[in-house]
Write a structure and sequence with these properties.
Chain B: This is ATP synthase subunit a. Chain B: It is a multi-pass membrane protein. Chain B: One of its GO terms (cellular component) is proton-transporting ATP synthase complex. The complex is a heterodimer of chains A (178) and B (263). In chain A, helix 2 crosses helix 3. With 178 residues, chain A is mainly α. Chain B has 263 residues and is mainly alpha-helical. Chain B has one domain. Helices cover 70% and strands 0% of the residues of chain B. Chain B is globular, with a radius of gyration of 23 Å. The chains are: A mainly alpha (178), B mainly alpha (263). Chains A and B meet through helix 1 and helix 2 of A and helix 2, helix 3, helix 4, helix 5 and helix 7 of B.
């Protein structure tokens, strides 16, 4: 409807002063609120964000480095512990073997000693028995001979000799039997 | 809207003309207070509210509106400021971000239903913006390059034969310090005006041939008008954002030329 009134269209290239005032005022108001008050806020936030991200990245890489270092340390310690353990095991095995050898040695020595002692005892007993037997046999033989011969062998020395001779014969025959 | 554009008294089809850019005052006696002026004020408020909702309490971890606001901010910074201003970008971002959003919202009104008028299709609005940029650029150039050097740096580029300066000097003077600032405004104004006019034309075609005067011959034409209106509206949405981007981009370029000698 309005157009009928605006039949005589003004030259659209000539700016209307009132429009320029309204437009300029509107723009300045927007520039004040948006450009002066609000844009600096977002600029500060964006800068803070860059800081935070860069700081965060740096912290993360530091932490990673630290973790890497700790890991390396643990690995070293673990390797050292393993080494130590194997060394101890080896040592224990050696000691065990040594102890076993020593014990065996000792046991053998003991056994030998016992056997020897037993031998000595037996020998001593034999000697003793032999000596006793010898006296006994001598007396018995004399008794017997006396009885057989019917006379006492008056001469002690002779008697002694006779007995000894007899015994030596006996011993040699005995040795031959053995 | 179309009804308002159509002189219903006539049975003949009449293409909408430049008249659709002239608005009477909304309040009697207040000649300045017409629809574009109202839209400019509403648009300004809208820009402030939107940006306030995004950036009033910015968080390190963005959420909701702040995400959108940051996308817009980063678009302007990466696509408009950085390519032209480099490390000076942050200092000029308040102006460039405001400029981009202000122009874009004003353009966007051209495609918002029931509003359907791009404020920037009235030359006064782009003109005051480019005038402001011109004043800023003149000040910056004289401050950073010296009141005379600022002009001579542009008018006498080194390495040319002497006699050619007779031609180059006036051309550079006029084009760099005046013409490109005028085209800065006219480019925005003209694209918005042409876009609005062509959409008005096609919607008028649809309205006239499908509703005002439905005839077997006219109906296909009316359907075509509706389809073209839809397609061109989509295209116009793209152009609106593109022109806002170009306006802010050129502003950044002019500022950089003032800060640093071009050659």
């Amino acid at each position: 409807m309005n157009l009928l009134a605006a039949e005589e269209a003004t030259n659209p290239l000539i700016p209307n002063v009132a429009e320029m005032v309204v437009g300029g005022f509107a723009f300045l108001v927007v520039l004040f609120f948006v450009g002066r008050l609000l844009v600096p806020r977002i600029q500060k936030t964006l800068a803070d964000r860059v800081d935070a991200i860069e700081g965060g990245l740096k912290r993360a890489s530091d932490a990673q480095e630290e973790a890497q270092r700790a890991l390396q340390q643990y690995k070293d310690q673990l390797a050292e512990a393993r080494h130590e353990a194997s060394r101890l095991r080896e040592e224990a095995r050696e000691q065990g073997a040594q102890i076993k050898a020593e014990l065996r040695e000792e046991a053998q020595a003991e056994a030998r000693r016992l056997v020897e002692a037993a031998h000595a005892q037996i020998e001593a007993d034999r000697q003793q028995a032999f000596a006793q037997l010898r006296n006994e046999i001598g007396r018995l033989s004399v008794d017997l001979a006396t009885r057989i011969v019917g006379e006492s062998l008056e001469d002690e020395a002779r008697r002694r000799r006779t007995v000894d001779r007899f015994l030596e014969e006996l011993e040699s025959s005995n040795a031959a039997v053995r | 809207m179309s009804a308002a554009l159509t002189p219903l008294a006539s049975e003949e089809f009449q293409a909408p003309g430049l008249g659709i850019f002239d608005w009477p005052p909304l309040v009697q006696g207040q000649a300045w207070f017409n629809k574009p002026a109202l839209l400019a004020l509403i648009g300004s408020l809208l820009v402030i509210v939107l940006v306030y909702a995004s950036f009033s309490r910015p968080k390190l971890v963005p959420r909701g509106m702040q995400n959108l606001g940051e996308m817009a901010y980063e678009f302007v910074r990466e696509q408009v400021a950085r390519p032209n201003l480099g490390k000076d970008s942050d200092r000029w971002m308040p102006l460039l971000f405001t400029m981009f959003f202000f122009v874009w919202i004003m353009n966007l009104f051209g495609s918002v239903i029931f509003i359907q008028f791009p404020v920037m299709s009235r030359i006064g609005y782009p003109a005051i913006l480019s005038l402001g940029v011109w004043v800023l650029v003149m000040y910056l150039g004289m401050k950073h390059q010296g009141p005379v050097k600022f002009f001579t740096n542009v008018m006498f580029p080194p390495g040319l034969p002497k006699w050619i300066y007779v031609l180059v000097a006036p051309i550079e003077l006029i084009s760099t310090f005046f013409l490109r600032h005028i085209t800065h405004a006219v480019r925005l104004f003209a694209t918005m005006m042409a876009g609005h006019l062509i959409i008005a034309l096609f919607s008028e075609v649809g309205w006239h041939f499908l509703f005002v005067q439905l005839t077997p011959l006219g109906a296909p034409l009316g359907v075509l008008g509706v389809i073209m209106t839809i397609l061109l509206t989509a295209f116009e949405l793209f152009i609106q954002a593109l022109q806002a981007y170009v306006f802010a981009l050129l502003t950044a370029m002019f500022i950089n030329d003032a800060l640093h000698p071009a050659h």
